[in-house]
Amino acid sequence: MNYKTPGVYVEEIAKFPPSVAQVETAIPAFIGYTTQGPKNEPTRISSMLEYETIFGKAKDEGGEISISIEDTVVTTTYGNKFGTFKMYYAMQMYFANGGGPCYIVSAGLYPSDGVAKQPDFKTSLDTLEKEDEPTLIVFPDAEALAAADAYQLYNLALDQSEDLKDRFVIMDVLGDVSTFRTAGPSSGPSGERLKYGAAYHPKLETVLSYSFEDKSVKITSYKVKNESGVL
Fold first, then answer.
1. Cys-Cys crosslink for 183: which of 13, 43, 55, 148, Cβ 3.0 to 4.6 Å?
2. In 3D, which of 100, 160, 107, 108 has the Cα closest to residue 130?
3. SS3 for 181?
C-alpha cells in the first residue's frame, strides 16, 4: 500500500488462504473423431493451438470445388455434400466464443470409409466416466451416425449423467420429427433422465470455412472487365 497523505491506515493481513477456491463452473468434454492424437484418453486442453498440436486439424472435404469469377461476382459450385464430421469446427467455435479449459476424448482417427460407428463413441463415453472434472458432454460428430444410433448414444450419456449427477448432455436434433418422437432421448427407467440433457434446434450457420485440399479447388472461369467495361 502506498501512503501519500498523513492519516491513520489499517491494513489487515489474512492469516489463512481463502476458504472458497475458484473453480470452473462448466468444463465441457468433446467426443469425436480427430486426425491424430491419443484414442479414448480424456485430455485437458485450454486453447485451439493446443487442440491442433495434439489432435490435428479438420478432415479435408472430398469432392471438387468449381469457382467462376466474372469481374466482382464469384460463383462457387461444390460437387458433393459437405462432410458430417464437425469436431474440429466445434472446437473453433468454442474457443472463438471465449471457451476455456475443456476435455477432448478422441474416438479415433476419421474413418477412411467416411462412415461413423456408434461403438467408437460409446467406448469414449465410457472412459469419460472416470473423470470427475467434466460437467458437460458434447458429441459434435454424432450427426454422422444414423439418427436412431445417435439417439441411443445420447440415452447412454444421459444414463451416465443421471448416475453420476455431476454432468449434463448437449444434444443435436437429428432426422425428422417422427424419428425424434419415436427414437429420440427418453426419460429412462427412473423417469428423471431427461433433466440431465438439452437438445438444440435448428442448426446455426457460421462464417467458418470448410477444409479442402488445394488440388480440389479449380477455377473454371475467370473474366475481369477492362478499362472500357468489356469482359
1. 148
2. 160
3. helix
SS3 label, residue 111 = coil
pTM, two decimal places = 0.77
Render the burial of 90-118: b for 16+ CB within 10 Å, e for the rest.
Answer: bbbebbeeeeeebbbbbbbebeeeeebbb
The reply to whether 17 falls in a domain is no
Separation of CA 207 from chain center = 15
Question: Is 136 inside a domain boundary?
Answer: yes
Which residue range forms the structural domain that includes residue 182? Answer: 28-223
Identify whether 16 is part of a domain: no
Grade residue 87 by pLDDT with cuts at 50, 70 and 90.
Answer: very high
State the total domains in the chain: 1
Which residues are paired to 121 by β-bridges?
none
C-alpha distances in angstroms, 49 versus 27, 52, 182, 184? 18, 5, 41, 35
